[in-house]
Amino acid sequence: MSASRFIKCVTVGDGAVGKTCMLISYTSNTFPTDYVPTVFDNFSANVVVDGSIVNLGLWDTAGQEDYNRLRPLSYRGAGVFLLAFSLISKASYENVAKKWIPELRHYAPGVPIILVGTKLDLRDDKQFFIDHPGAVPITTAQGEELRKLIGAPVYIECSSKTQQNYLLGFMQDSLLIDPDPDNPLAPKVAHMCQADKIKYESTARAGLKSMSWDRP
């Protein structure tokens, strides 16, 4: 097995879109139902990706304006960004292009961005929209349109609560990495959508998460 290399993965997006829940769900396989912190503690884990060990560093950021001056300090050394918006919040969707892309391109030009639509479980929840008449659902087509607009190679929709599409999207898009001779920290993610079959195997004894995939 080849030596490990480090990938820093930073989540960004408006406050309350579910970034912290997304990271807690991934790292603990549980969805927080009580207290959810504003920012998730940085997390580091070794994962096996196609026979190679990758040290994955997960960094959370706060989207509120109060953190505008401090947040960019987390961007240094980032290998990939997870740019999240809520599938039940038009404002967070619009802020991807209005706020987050300009900020990321200013502080971290050239770093790949994975666009993530969160709270997938609520988009088709009729009771939610009855209780929140001002909420506007974002369709998959709108997400793809935004992906093209910002130049992101990948768009995924997921639910941290049900973990629908979660491991498939997050792990596949973040960790199926080919070395880039021009920028060793920059994952090439455009080819990821070509995978037909993804298999995940837990290797708890070794303290690793293992991934393999069958390509077409």
TrEMBL record:
Domain of life: Eukaryota
Keywords assigned by UniProt, alphabetized: GTP-binding, Lipoprotein, Nucleotide-binding
InterPro entries, alphabetized: P-loop_NTPase, Small_GTP-bd, Small_GTPase, Small_GTPase_Rho
GO biological process, one term: small GTPase-mediated signal transduction
UniProt family annotation: Belongs to the small GTPase superfamily. Rho family.
Protein name according to UniProt: Uncharacterized protein
GO molecular function, one term: GTP binding
Protein's organism: Salix dunnii
SUPFAM superfamilies the record matches: P-loop containing nucleoside triphosphate hydrolases (SSF52540)
